[in-house]
Structures are given as C-alpha cells and as structure tokens.
Amino acid sequence: MTAPAPAPAPALAPAPTLEDLREVCQPQAKLASRNGEHWAGRLYMRRLSLRLTRQLVRTLITPDQLTWTMVWCGIASGAALLIPGLTGAVLAVVLMQLFLLFDCVDGEVARWKGQNSATGIYVDRLGAYLADAALMVGVGLRAAESGLDAWVCLGLATALGVVLLKASTDLVDVARARRGLTAVADDEATRPRSQGVATARRLAAAFKLHRVTNGIEASLVLLAAAVVDLALGGLDATRWALLAIAAITWVMVPAHLLSILSSSRLR
Predict the structure, then answer these.
(1) Position 222 confidence tier, pLDDT thresholds 50, 70, 90
(2) Fewer Cβ atoms within 10 Å of its own Cβ: the N or the C terminal residue of the chain?
(3) Measured between alpha carbons, how far is 195 from 267 in angstroms, rounded to an integer?
(4) pLDDT per residue over 113-134, tens digit each?
(5) Which superfamily does 18-261 belong to?
(6) How big is the CA angle at 21 (ends 15 and 23), to the nearest 5 degrees?
(7) What is the CA radius of gyration of the chain?
(8) Is residue 152 predicted with pLDDT exceeding 80?
C-alpha cells in the first residue's frame, strides 16, 4: 500500500506593487513629520525598506517580531564597538543601519497587515532608548581599552544623557495623556514662547550638532574617528569624539527641558 503523497505547500500570495505599498505603508503625513521620521529614512532608507516590506507582507512574520529584531540590532551596535580597530566601528555602523531599516519595516508591515499594537509602539520606543544608550556605553568601553576608568564613566554618563533627552520628549505625551489632552500635532505648539529660547533653538537647529546624540549619526562620527585612529595609531580620535558627544549631550539636556517648559506643549 503506497503512502499518500504529501500535500503541496501553500503558494505565497502575489507580492503587492510598490505603488500600492507606498500608498498604505508610507503615509505622507508621517514622512513629512520633523519628529516622526529620521532624515536618513526620508533620504534613502524608505526606498530600501519598501522593497523588503514587499516580501515580508507575504510571510507569517509579525510586526512585533521585526521590532524586536530592530532592538537587538541597536544593542549589538554598541557591543560591536568592543571589537578593536576599524572592524568594530564598521560593524557598529552596519548594525545601526539595520536598526533603522527594521525601524522602517516594522511599521510598514503593521500598516499593510492592519496589525498595529500598543506593544509594538512600546517596544519600538524602548528599542530607541536601548540602541542609543548601548552605543554610548560601547564607545566608553572602547575608549578605555581595558578595565573600568574615567572613559567608561563618561560613556555611561553620555548614555544617561541621551536617554534623558528621549524621555523628556516622550514624557510630554505622557503628561498630556494624563490630563486628557491629545498629542501635540503641530510645530507651533513646540515653539518656545520666550524669544531668547526660540532664537537659541533656531541656532542649534541650524548647526544640527544635536544630531550626534542619536545613535545613527553617532555611529558615523565614531567610524570617522576610527579611521583617524587607524592612521595615527592609538585611540585619541575616538576619545575626542566621545568627549564632544558627551559635551553636546549634556548641553542639550537642560536646553531641551527649557525648550519644552517654555513652549505650549504642556498646555
């Protein structure tokens, strides 16, 4: 008696067109948002992410699984800096770019499949905190070479600073929600009422130094420092880069808090 033939594997659904995906997964309001979309996403990553999303929406992979992948890429980026030389710095940049890729893809898959969840939003924000903090801790350990010294402490202090910057922004929505208010939706509400604070904010935005507190930009700065270290020998460039990032971070922490308190975001 012959065994019955195995049932054929179910065929994958045809992939949607990029045009259909773009309409659903990349709403213009989100892409145009200054705070809701990273500049690298608008510049190039959204073009790449949509092609990956086109394949993933045909699978059983969930948006939450993609978000956790994003989280681990961000944490691994900081760990990569423990690899000496240029290799660790290059790997940190690659992992940060993968972090950004999956940060785009998880939301696109969620919109297409209609699987948006509070859990996904929570893990996404948690991942942003962990990725940036891990990179700063990683560069502190890299600058120290071995043992626990002042460079490790500086890396930890910088990690705390970048977490405070993100938390001070997110806590605006927490405070507004507890007062029964909707999220801030326009730039007018974020503009400081004090003319002096508003001018300082515009100057800071013009030079864009605050961007180095973000893991994606910081990883590129650290890669440039690693190239200089390779050429000159030692870790002086990495240490100066860490000092600069730490200084900018801790200037930004009270400045950002003042900007929030002097705006209409909490009213």
Answers:
(1) very high
(2) N
(3) 18
(4) 888 888 989 999 999 999 999 9
(5) CDP-alcohol phosphotransferase transmembrane (TM) domain (1.20.120.1760)
(6) 155
(7) 21
(8) yes
